[in-house]
Design brief:
Largest sheet: 10 strands, mixed
Structural class: alpha/beta
Helix content: 25-40%
Number of helices: 11
Shape: extended
Low-confidence stretches: 33-52, 356-371
Strand content: 15-25%
Order of helices and strands: HHEEEHEHHEHHEEHEEHEHEEHEE
């Protein structure tokens, strides 16, 4: 009887151990299955929502490092330059949109991020000590709340040499301390600045436009250098990348992007057909029309307007440079710098083109396609 009872106990123990083993194996299987499913879900998530290449903390650390350096004086000694307040990872074959702005006109940066899908480099000019502080706080806020800024924008700061930009302290209450989104940052910027300030009018401060242009395109192989209030057409970055990927013969050549002006009250045209309609009734006109017509006349706007529609971007015709043409263009290879002795406004961009001619640069082609110009709003 005792023997039978012992056998039964041993059997039940063995059965219980087997059941526990099966349960453990099932749990392990379910855990592995869940992990695989989670990995698939994560891969699908990142396919649609790629992770930011840099964390917020990394960007803030870079900002502090750049400001703590004290900046570097430019060749004239009149300006202090802080490189890389914000940085972005650059593909050497990418096309960078390089621009410049006063602190008050940085509001245009939001629109550029919407229209330009590639990397963007902006040089900011702070004319006073207060503006330099605002620029640093703004860079701090943008890096905190704007993923697109962290992923795609490089920012540099220039101020008069007698000023130094300060590292913002997040513990100090200030204009941007309570903001929680990228849109809130730009909304706050709109309230504390005066967009449209022109340093050529009523001030004794020289706006170093060519220094800012050189700084913005400093690390670029291919760059489109424009003013911050210009609007690139949707798809321009993609069109340029596709075209450049198909050709390796861009050294010493430039691809001109036609530039237009449009009344501020008008809605931006969605494609070339809409632009041509506005052009024909005088609501859109060539860039600098009337102010300096010869500066863009060689682009031959009437020829460009009458080009047949195409789905791909390509050079449409060749135009040799002649004085005083100063087009907006994308170029490959080593491009001469802008002459930084020119400040304020008037015949400053053209200072670069003759140097390129002497260096062996060739003529420049126009651009065809459905909607690939630049447009600037005018009163």
């Amino acid at each position: 009887m005792q023997m039978s009872y012992a056998i039964r106990c041993a059997f039940y123990q063995l059965l219980l151990a087997a059941l526990m083993l099966v349960a453990m194996l099932q749990l392990l299987y379910l855990s592995l299955l869940s992990g695989l499913h989670g990995q698939e879900e994560q891969e699908q998530y990142f396919e649609f929502f790629p992770p930011s290449p840099r964390s917020v903390d990394q960007v803030k650390s870079q900002l502090r490092t750049a400001l703590a350096s004290g900046g570097a004086l430019d060749a004239s000694g009149d300006y202090r330059v802080y490189r890389g307040l914000l940085k972005t990872t650059l593909d050497p074959n990418d096309v960078i949109l390089a621009t410049h702005a006063s602190v008050d006109n940085l509001l245009h940066l939001s629109g550029l991020l919407e229209r330009w899908e590639g990397p963007l480099s902006v040089s900011v000019f702070a004319a006073t000590k207060e503006e330099a502080q605002l620029a640093t706080v703004l860079a701090y806020a943008l890096s905190s709340h704007c993923p697109e800024m962290r992923a795609r924008v490089a920012m540099h700061l220039v101020c008069p040499s007698r000023y130094e930009a300060a590292v913002p302290d997040p513990r100090e209450p200030g204009e941007f301390a309570l903001l929680r989104s990228c849109q809130e940052v730009f909304d706050k910027l709109a309230r504390v600045t005066q967009p449209g300030i022109n340093y050529a009018l009523g001030t004794n401060i020289s706006y170093p436009n060519n220094l800012l242009r050189n700084l913005a395109r400093e690390e670029a192989n291919y760059a489109l250098v424009i003013d911050v209030d210009m609007v690139p057409s949707e798809g321009l970055w993609r069109g340029l990348r596709e075209m450049l990927d198909q050709s390796n013969h861009w050294d010493g050549r430039a691809l001109v992007v036609p530039a237009f002006e449009i009344r501020r009250t008008r809605r931006m045209p969605m494609n070339k057909n809409e632009l041509v309609q506005l052009y024909q009734v005088g609501e859109v006109r060539p860039f600098y029309y009337g102010l300096c017509t010869p500066c863009h006349a060689p682009t031959n706007y009437s020829r460009w307007v009458n080009l047949p529609e195409e789905s791909l971007l390509r050079p449409a015709y060749v135009v040799p440079w002649r004085d005083p043409w100063e087009p907006f263009y994308v170029a490959g290879g080593k491009v001469p710098t802008f002459d930084e002795r020119f400040r304020q406004y008037g015949f400053n961009r053209i200072s670069q083109v003759p140097k390129w001619e002497r260096a062996g640069g060739t003529g420049a082609g126009g651009v065809s396609g459905m909607d690939w110009p630049l447009i600037e709003k005018r009163p």
